[in-house]
Specification:
The complex is a heterodimer of chains A (116) and B (113). Chain A has 116 residues and is mainly beta. Chain A is globular, with a radius of gyration of 13 Å. With 113 residues, chain B is mostly beta strands. Chain B contains no helices and eleven strands. Chain B is globular and about 45 Å long. Classes of the chains: A mainly beta (116), B mainly beta (113). Chains A and B meet through strand 9 and strand 10 of A and strand 4, strand 5, strand 9 and strand 10 of B.
Chain lengths: 116, 113
């Protein structure tokens, strides 16, 4: 266990559904991240939150909406997704982002999302 | 834009063999480099983190080296075991003006009993 939990672990949704992914970290970290992992592609950073403030949005479509109510919790709200959004969505946390060389990211187990 | 390449994409070895996984990156202005392990359908487990000022890190049977100036890292696994079978990911922090991690596509390792 890395101290980062994600729920649900698997999710199947239709293109008209609305669902949310949840991530919780128990490490006392201040930064949290959403990544997308598609088949045969490298992990892609989606969003970064530092001290609850969004500091990076990697040109992610608006059908993905993140929310960070506090430094321990991170949500990804999903609506009107497309089949190509099917992927493994990974959450990670670190002490804080930025240029600190020792800043190590810890990952959760991921949510396997299938859009039908 | 920082780019990370891992070679080979897949590797199959008999149990007990020593092996090397390769990682290269295009922008040498990095803060650190991490090697991760990912089991099928699971999240990432951090194996080793090398700071930009370091040349190598060791943990058990794993040894990672970093040559920042040439943009290369290797992960050496000694006396491989079937339990080492997984996908190994290399990620660099920084480069091209970014503070974030850039990942390679990974090397899928199979250790045959």
């Amino acid at each position: 266990e890395t101290g980062v939990t994600q729920t649900p672990r698997h999710l199947v949704m239709g293109m008209t559904n609305k669902k949310s992914l949840k991530c919780e970290q128990h490490l006392g970290h201040n930064a949290m991240y959403w990544y997308k992992q598609s088949a045969k592609k490298p992990l892609e950073l989606m969003f970064v939150y530092n001290f609850k403030e969004q500091t990076e949005n990697n040109s992610v479509p608006s059908r993905f909406s993140p929310e960070c109510p506090n430094s321990s919790h991170l949500f990804l709200h999903l609506h009107t997704l497309q089949p190509e959004d099917s992927a493994l969505y990974l959450c990670a946390s670190s002490q804080e982002p930025g240029g600190r060389a020792l800043d190590e990211q810890y990952f959760g187990p991921g949510t396997r999302l299938t859009v039908t | 834009k920082q780019e990370v390449t891992q070679i080979p994409a897949a590797l199959s070895v008999p149990e007990g063999e020593n092996l090397v996984l390769n990682c290269s990156f295009t922008d040498s202005a990095i803060y650190n480099l991490q090697w991760f392990r990912q089991d099928p359908g699971k999240g990432l487990t951090s194996l080793l983190l090398i700071q930009s000022s370091q040349r190598e890190q060791t943990s058990g049977r794993l040894n990672a080296s970093l040559d920042k100036s040439s943009g290369r890292s290797t992960l050496y696994i000694a006396a491989s075991q079937p339990g080492d079978s997984a996908t190994y990911l290399c990620a660099v922090k920084g480069g091209a003006g970014s503070y974030q991690l850039t990942f390679g596509k990974g090397t899928k390792l199979s250790v045959i009993p």
